[in-house]
Amino acid sequence: MFKNTKSSYGIVAIALHWLMAAMVIGLFGLGLYMVELTYYDSWYKGSLDLHKSVGITLVALLIFRFAWRALGTQPEPLSNSSPVLNKVAHTAHLFLYVLLCIIVISGYLISTADGRSIEVFTLFSIPAIDFSVANQADIAGKIHYYVACSLIGLVVLHALGALKHHFIDKDKTLIRMIKPQKDDL
């Protein structure tokens, strides 16, 4: 089952979810590691190039995820779930997407502040826009950092919510994001 149904996420949505989650956590960890490096550290440039390349890959997956979501069916909430909690979960997902978009834009503005393009795994380049403001890299860097910390905080709450559904509520919320389910709500 590749596509979503009214009662289940499909393999594509599940794979996107977990791949993007791993990338976000990995990029956050790499970002924290990178800011501690000095120009003379052996992995200074390599970590920066990897962070940018994986970040651009995350952008591509995010765009694909938006398209997949817009063009496909979304599973309905479980029949035993609270409408208030469903609204909270929906709002949290919107915030996750908004924060991801802000991180992407701020990362691009940091990387292209000096007018250079972004090399993606040495396969192709993303050009810089012909626009900059004073201290662009510093301003965008602060935004990037604080929004990334906010995103990770929200990811932790998201994961705790999924675990609560699984272990306390004993419902299929987490299971639906691990493997496709039969058509029963």
Automatic annotation (TrEMBL):
<feature type="domain" description="Cytochrome b561 bacterial/Ni-hydrogenase">
    <location>
        <begin position="9"/>
        <end position="179"/>
    </location>
</feature>
<keyword id="KW-0479">Metal-binding</keyword>
<keyword id="KW-1133">Transmembrane helix</keyword>
<comment type="similarity">
    <text>Belongs to the cytochrome b561 family.</text>
</comment>
<dbReference type="InterPro" id="IPR052168">
    <property type="entry name" value="Cytochrome_b561_oxidase"/>
</dbReference>
<keyword id="KW-0812">Transmembrane</keyword>
<keyword id="KW-0349">Heme</keyword>
<keyword id="KW-0249">Electron transport</keyword>
<dbReference type="InterPro" id="IPR016174">
    <property type="entry name" value="Di-haem_cyt_TM"/>
</dbReference>
<dbReference type="InterPro" id="IPR011577">
    <property type="entry name" value="Cyt_b561_bac/Ni-Hgenase"/>
</dbReference>
<feature type="transmembrane region" description="Helical">
    <location>
        <begin position="143"/>
        <end position="163"/>
    </location>
</feature>
<feature type="transmembrane region" description="Helical">
    <location>
        <begin position="12"/>
        <end position="34"/>
    </location>
</feature>
<keyword id="KW-0813">Transport</keyword>
<keyword id="KW-0472">Membrane</keyword>
<keyword id="KW-0408">Iron</keyword>
<dbReference type="Pfam" id="PF01292">
    <property type="entry name" value="Ni_hydr_CYTB"/>
</dbReference>
<keyword id="KW-1003">Cell membrane</keyword>
<protein>
    <submittedName>
        <fullName>Cytochrome b</fullName>
    </submittedName>
</protein>
<feature type="transmembrane region" description="Helical">
    <location>
        <begin position="92"/>
        <end position="110"/>
    </location>
</feature>
